[in-house]
Design brief:
The structure is a single chain. The protein has helices spanning 30-35, 96-108, 118-125, 131-142, 146-156, 159-183, 191-213, 215-223, 237-245, 288-303, 319-328, 348-354, 374-386, 401-422, 427-445, 451-458; strands at 8-11, 18-26, 38-39, 53-60, 67-76, 87-94, 112-113, 225-230, 263-269, 272-278, 306-312, 333-338, 363-365. The chain has a 7-stranded mixed beta sheet with strand order 3-4-5-6-2-1-7. The longest helix has 25 residues, at 159-183. It starts with 7 loop residues before the first strand and ends in a 7-residue tail after the last helix. The protein contains 16 helices and 13 strands. The protein is an alpha/beta fold and 465 residues long. Bound molecules: guanosine-5'-triphosphate and magnesium ion. Guanosine-5'-triphosphate binds next to helix 9.
């Protein structure tokens, strides 16, 4: 433990004004450094404070002995801390100056400014958490709904690690069994042993496939989806955004061409974090700003996961509406007839037929003004998004594309092993492929890792975590 020579420090709370601002120090000199900058009536020195206690005192500028802030200090001792090293936290008043000054003093006393994610990297390298748990930390921070937070917390608590460790252990046994036969190469591998290896591989494949099958659902809850609201001008796109958000976010007016740029907001659709994009109404225009907006609307049609194409139910379909139909046909789509509070100017089946008929495009009538059908629209978005994903309400889900790739590569390698064994090829070849399978799956928990994997994971963290 504590293989690092240097001690790191960073501000762990977001910049700006707040209730408190925390400066965190981790490493072998954390307590010594804190001693040089803290004064308290009760405990003269942080080194005398029992672990997991806090004490009130002052951060002192060691240059002139002046007080920088009144703070609470928390001391945690290795290996029982976030990083598994000695950790000291200064809980300052959450102002810009005092937090920055406190950090500067830690640096002047010998700490080094931490890189993004370096506290969590140390927790990993010191063996307190594995790589998938470290990724879980970031997912918990980034989660936007209760469901995505539950899934991330499960990963942070070691849910994914446990499943992977079981598979690694089973694969290790199969590797040993296969390699044992190579060592006794004068004796041919008994047919029954090859059969046993194949059975074991089959069981491992079953577990891997089960985990892999949770990915679509996991990804949806972790990464969420994007929903673009598109249509010609004045059909009620911005009104719909406001109705979905239950607040007046976008400007609504009876003048066509009100929305000029895309507007994005987050929405919770039954636990799935959704980015909803209101777009500029699409029509013929010669004005530069409007044309730019329309270009962005057309881009949203290409980029979004789900398109909500809005039509004005109180007016006949226009050539602009038919242009929208042409642009959105074939997309993951809901055709929405708005203004159901007005007398219907056309039947829903006309729109469905325009989209090619056959019930392929769901058509829904709503009113953004009275909120009629907004609940049904949310239900429909949810079932379209989650439609292809098996429901996994509890249990471990794979949410991370890095994990999914490792599982799939492991499955490929195992398929090659099975083919080699079934074709009675030399056991060395099968053993080599088994090692590949083992190394690949071990990357998930970081048993096998590279600097580039670590850089890409921890580089996404913020400084101070
Ligand atoms: N009666 C009725 N009027 C609505 C409804 N939804 C929107 N409107 C009205 O339709 C007009 C246009 O609404 P917006 O939400 O600004 O339409 P938009 O599609 O965003 O328009 P652009 O931004 O110009 O493309 C406004 O006068 C709204 O009050 C509805 O459900 N019923
Ligand atoms: Mg608008």
């Amino acid at each position: 433990m504590n293989s690092y020579q240097d001690t790191i420090a960073a501000v762990s709370t977001p910049p700006g004004e707040g209730g408190i601002g925390i400066v965190r120090i981790s490493g072998k000199d954390a307590i010594v450094i804190s001693q040089g900058m803290f004064k308290s009536k009760k405990y003269k020195l942080p080194s005398t404070m029992p672990a997991f206690t806090m004490s009130l005192g002052h951060v002192i500028n060691p240059l002139d002995g002046s007080s920088v802030d009144e703070v609470l200090i928390a001391v945690m001792r290795a290996p029982h801390s976030y990083t598994a090293e000695d950790v000291v936290e200064f809980h300052c008043h959450g102002g810009y100056f005092t937090v920055k000054k406190t950090l500067e003093i830690t640096l002047s006393l010998g700490a080094r400014l931490a890189e993004p994610g370096e506290f969590t990297l140390r927790a990993f390298l010191n063996g307190r958490i594995d790589l998938s748990q470290a990724e879980g930390v970031l997912d918990v921070i980034k989660s936007k709904t209760a469901e995505s937070s539950r899934i991330a917390l499960e990963q942070l608590s070691g849910g994914v690690s446990e499943k992977i460790t079981e598979i690694v252990s089973a694969l290790t046994t199969v590797c040993a069994l296969t390699e044992a036969h190579i060592d006794f190469s004068d004796e041919d591998a008994q047919l029954s042993d090859v059969k046993e290896i194949l059975i074991n591989i089959g069981e491992i494949e079953k577990k891997l496939k089960q985990l892999s099958s949770t990915y679509e659902t996991g990804r949806l809850y972790r990464e969420g989806m994007s929903i673009a609201i598109v249509g010609r001008t004045n059909v009620g796109k911005s009104s719909l955004l406001n109705a979905l958000l239950e607040k007046n976010r976008a400007i609504v007016s009876e003048t066509p061409g009100t929305t000029r740029d895309t507007i994005e907001e987050y929405l919770n659709i039954d636990g799935i974090p959704a980015r909803v994009i209101d777009t500029a109404g699409i029509r013929q225009s010669t004005e530069y700003a409007e044309l730019e907006g329309i270009k962005r609307s057309l881009n949203s049609i290409e980029a979004a996961d789900v398109i909500v194409a809005v039509f004005d139910g109180g007016a006949e379909l226009t050539s602009e509406d038919f242009y929208i139909i042409e642009k959105t046909t074939g997309k993951t789509l809901i055709a929405l007839i708005n203004k159901s509070d007005l007398k219907a100017a056309f039947h829903a089946s006309v729109l469905a037929e325009s989209y090619g008929g056959g019930g392929l495009t769901p058509v829904l009538r709503i009113s953004a003004k009275t909120n009629d059908g907004i609940g049904a629209l949310k239900d429909m978005i949810f079932s379209i998004a989650a439609g292809n994903s098996p429901e996994v309400k509890n249990g471990v889900l794979i949410t991370n594309v890095r994990h999914k790739r490792a599982i799939d590569e492991c499955l490929f390698a195992l398929a090659r092993v099975a083919t080699l064994l079934s074709d009675s090829m030399p056991l060395e070849l099968a053993a080599f492929e088994l090692r590949t399978a083992l190394d690949t799956i071990s990357e998930i928990t970081g048993l096998v890792t590279t600097d580039s994997i670590l850089d890409s994971i921890f580089g996404r963290f913020c400084i101070g975590k």
